[in-house]
Design goal:
The complex is a heterodimer of chains A (301) and B (399).
Chain A (H helix, E strand, L loop, with lengths): L1 H11 L3 H36 L2 E3 L8 E3 L4 H9 L1 H32 L4 H9 L6 H11 L5 H8 L13 H26 L2 H9 L4 H30 L2 H6 L7 H11 L3 H26 L6
Antiparallel strand pairs in A: 1-2
Helix pairs in contact in A: 3-13, 4-8, 4-10, 8-10, 9-10, 10-13, 12-13
Chain B lengths: L8 H18 L6 H12 L15 E6 L6 E3 L2 E3 L1 H10 L3 E7 L2 H14 L7 E5 H9 L33 E14 L10 H4 L8 E4 L2 H11 L10 H16 L3 E5 L3 H6 L5 E5 H11 L3 E4 L5 E10 L6 H10 L3 H11 L8 H8 L1 H4 L8 H4 L2 E2 L6 H14 L3
Parallel strand pairs in B: 1-4, 1-5, 7-8, 7-9, 11-12
Antiparallel strand pairs in B: 2-3, 5-11, 6-9, 6-10, 6-11
Helix pairs in contact in B: 1-2, 8-16, 12-13
Classes of the chains: A mainly alpha (301), B alpha/beta (399).
């Protein structure tokens, strides 16, 4: 088809110059994007990669490093910070599962049961984005704080002892992660549920499937692209997050993002920070490729 | 401009004049405003002969911390009365920029330009001792000209000869303060005198300490009997780290924080802290008289923030005049009455008597010998120690 079109064009426009112009247009259109990728992705990544194999210069002067191609930096960085890596992925996994458990019914209700309320409910899901991520996390610190409404009520009901806290625990960190990334889970699931043809669900009922079977065999498989996209959009940023752990956590709930931050800005140890960033990227890449292969979703963008 | 900075002023003004005349008449332009101003200045007056090369003059840009200068709200906008006084009496304009939030963060922001010798956007920076040490060591500051600073001798004798800047040639103290214990008087009725009381199990998870390594570790090391002013060993420091790490892993320490520990005290998440003196007073001013500050019986730390002229500044003499102005005892007393930190100026106490006699006898603003004997300045660390110690401290803090 395309080659037909091309020959047709050739016949209609004998000018060679015009022809070349036509062929180059898609590439010209790609240039801004490629330039962007090159300057803001390729160059920084290369810079980070070279930094990660440097070692501190003999003088130990702040910010002074020699390029020694020491790949052992990666081993050292990983071994020293295993706990935080492990914690990051466990927290991110729990937060992703919790977000899925909350988002799926929510997205389902918005897509199929909300009627006239649909737009209002959607706005309510997106509304938290109108204020800063940081402010919302700080707000949770106040809400769950020792003199906040939650703790006061629970203490009056004698469920919590006086002096016990909710913030500065792993619970509040995971809660914060779940809360902050919830819209990223809800919206893709909503989008794929919304696209399901109601006739398919009706047909399933006509074939004597009960509600559970219809959900299992029709609705869920059709919404899988949304679930996969949502879980990735939640898991990836959650595993690299450091705001929740630093605001809602304690020193024993620090995640790998906190370590990278402290190596960059506090210790001024750029090689370790860069190596940690690469290890984090690599682990996420492996987890994501295995996950996508298992779920077998091609529709994922 | 930079390569000319080492030339004598006369030579420089000649070069500038020639260059500017030739290029301007040729219509080439492109000459920096700074060079143009310098050539004009050199032609018109003789007083410039006393200034230092590469000193172009103009507005002094001063980077400082929040709530660190007497402020007043006039018609909804913030003004600084003592700074207004300087501007109107000298005619030198000042851009006061509350841009320092954290020593490390500020250093991260400007270090690239400093390394390249490009203007960092500030003439005066105000940084804590150890960071001032780093700047001076790396040559990022300019040597002060005592001739421009008649009040320079008013600095407290205890501050006039510090390890990182013997004889105060590169820096002048802005304010000093103590690190010690702060606590909520209602929740900790007995008060806190020692680390044993601070890290008591009954306050588990409700104690916070500073992320400034020298303050938190300074107090811990002194508790372990180490003199932090003397060259203690790496082992001694690591013993302190082990003690600190144990409090963290036992869950006694809730968080290791910067200045925002104040917020946790205000909302009751933290009942007691290792914190800074002036902060606790400002918290009392906001929240009612609920908090108290005390120096640990085994010893607290004394730190200072220092004004320095950045190596990239082309406005040295005006910056020196501004620094000198704040060493006038009368002006210093006005600042101290507002910020409530230790005033580094001799004679300010007598001036404070006129403003507020109770503040003049406040040991946290004008500490007496007995108070000063309870605090020490953390010794300066070698670059190698700084790396090792701060890494150990970060790891112990969970990072």
């Amino acid at each position: 088809m395309e080659s037909n079109l091309k020959t047709l064009q050739k016949e209609q426009t004998p000018s060679l110059l015009k022809n070349i112009k036509l062929d180059f247009t898609p590439y010209l259109l790609l240039i801004p994007g490629l330039l962007w990728l090159f300057t803001f992705f390729i160059l920084p990544i290369l810079n980070l990669a070279t930094t990660s194999t440097k070692t501190r210069s003999a003088s130990y002067e702040t910010g002074s490093f020699d390029q020694t191609w020491r790949f052992l930096n990666y081993v050292d960085a990983f071994v020293e910070n295993q706990d935080q890596f492990y914690r990051s992925f466990i927290y991110a996994l729990i937060a992703t599962l919790l977000a899925l458990a909350i988002s799926y019914p929510l997205a389902y209700a918005i897509a199929f049961r909300s009627g006239a309320m649909k737009n209002i409910l959607l706005i309510m899901v997106i509304a938290p984005f109108f204020t800063s991520f940081l402010l919302r996390t700080l707000a949770w610190k106040q809400i769950l704080g020792s003199q906040g409404p939650v703790v006061t009520v629970l203490q009056n009901l004698h469920i919590m002892k006086v002096g016990d806290t909710i913030t500065a625990t792993s619970f509040s960190v995971i809660m914060g992660l779940t809360y902050n990334f919830l819209p990223f889970m809800t919206l893709p699931i909503y989008a794929s549920l919304e696209r399901i043809d109601p006739k398919l669900i009706e047909a399933s009922g006509d074939l004597f499937a009960n509600g559970l079977n219809t959900f299992r065999k029709v609705t869920l498989p059709l919404s899988m692209p949304g679930v996969v996209a949502g879980t990735l959009l939640t898991f990836i940023p959650a595993s690299g997050d450091y705001i929740n752990a630093s605001i809602l956590g304690n020193p024993n709930t620090k995640m790998i993002g906190n370590v990278i931050d402290s190596r960059f800005f506090r210790v001024v140890d750029y090689p370790t920070a860069a190596a940690l960033s690469f290890i984090l990227m690599a682990i996420i890449l492996i987890i994501v490729s295995v996950y996508i292969r298992k779920t077998g979703t091609d529709e994922l963008v | 401009m930079k390569d000319k900075s080492s030339l004598s002023l006369a030579a420089k003004s000649i070069i500038n004049a020639q260059v500017s005349r030739r290029k301007l008449f040729a219509g080439v332009g492109g000459l920096s405003a700074a060079a143009f101003l310098a050539s004009c200045g050199a032609k018109s007056s003789s007083e410039v002969a006393t200034t230092i090369p590469s000193d172009v003059g103009g507005t002094v840009r001063w980077a400082n911390w929040a709530a660190y200068l007497d402020a007043k709200r006039v018609n909804g906008s913030r003004t600084y009365p003592t700074l207004e006084g300087f501007i109107s009496s000298t005619g030198i304009n000042v851009d006061y920029l509350v841009d320092v939030n954290d020593n490390d963060e500020f250093y991260g922001k400007v270090q690239g330009q400093l390394k390249l010798g490009k203007d960092i956007g500030y003439d005066i920076v105000t940084l804590t001792d150890w960071m001032a040490d780093r700047w001076i060591r790396l040559g990022y500051t300019q040597t002060l000209d005592a001739g421009n600073m008649p009040n320079k001798g008013n600095i407290l004798p205890s501050l006039s000869n510090v390890g990182f800047d013997p004889g105060r040639k590169q820096s002048m103290t802005w304010q000093s303060g103590f690190a010690g214990f702060g606590w909520n008087k209602q929740l900790v009725p007995g008060g806190i005198n020692s680390l044993d009381q601070l890290f008591d199990k009954k306050y588990k998870g409700r104690i916070e300490v500073l992320s400034e390594m020298r303050d938190t570790m300074g107090i811990i090391l002194q508790y372990q009997g180490v003199d932090i002013t003397k060259p203690f060993t790496e082992d001694e420091f690591m013993n302190g780290i082990d003690f600190f790490e144990k409090q963290v892993s036992d869950g006694i320490i809730r968080q290791v924080k910067g200045n925002d520990y104040l917020e946790d005290m205000a909302i009751g998440d933290a009942v007691a802290v290792i914190g800074w003196s002036g902060d606790i007073f400002s918290l009392n001013a906001e929240e009612g008289d609920k908090y108290q500050f005390g120096i640990p019986e085994s010893g607290g730390t004394l730190w200072s923030d220092n004004m320095m002229i950045a190596s990239t500044s082309t406005n040295k003499s005006n910056a020196e005049k501004l620094m000198d102005y704040y060493y006038d005892p009368k002006v210093a007393a006005e600042v101290a009455a507002w910020v409530n930190y230790i005033c580094p100026v001799v004679g300010a106490q007598a001036e404070m008597e006129k403003i507020d006699p109770t503040l003049a006898s406040n040991n946290m603003i004008f500490p007496d010998e007995a108070t000063l004997s309870k605090v020490s300045v953390f010794r300066s660390l070698s670059p190698e120690e700084e790396v090792k110690f701060s890494e150990a401290f970060q790891i112990a803090s969970g990072n």
